[in-house]
Amino acid sequence: MRGVRLLPSASRPAQAWKNGGGVTREVARQDDGAGDILWRVSIADVREAGPFSHFPGIDRVLAVLEGRLLLDFGAGRAPVLVTPETAAHAFPGDVPVSGTPDGGPVTDLNLMVRRGAVRGAQLRVSPGLSSLSPNPTAARLLVAAGEAQVTCGGETYTLGRLDALLFAPGTTAPVLVQAAAACWLVDIVPPADADEP
Known about the structure:
It is built from no helices and 19 strands. By secondary structure, it is an all-beta fold.
């Protein structure tokens, strides 16, 4: 279907973290006219505890696809536990935070958006059959934690583990998801709509 693009996990090269502490694989991104990130979605494997990279002017939303991750923001705040069953956790990309795997390796899904220019959110889609209402003002990304069949506009797409579908702004067809494991729906509101309520 026009406006829908399959993004296979096998096509993503590993990239070093900004702080040198590991690797991530970029799923999709859009830059502004100056070459800076407008929004970016990536998947990272967290094997050991360590600080997150510092991203001035960026807001982040983090979901966990596999494992359990403790986010520590310091300053006497209790750590936040993020798992595949919890909601995604939003936080500024320019505050100190470290992540600690709890009980084994973690695979997480990161959304980064340029503060004041773009808004973003992540929504967990439960296993089984789900119908997603259109959001034509947003770029949307559906990331599968396991196998899934996705139907949109009369076409069906087969997703394997960590494969994704990118829906361009303006896509109005309903989306039907049949998934063996949870999926995550990422919505990115384009710059022209960023100031709308």
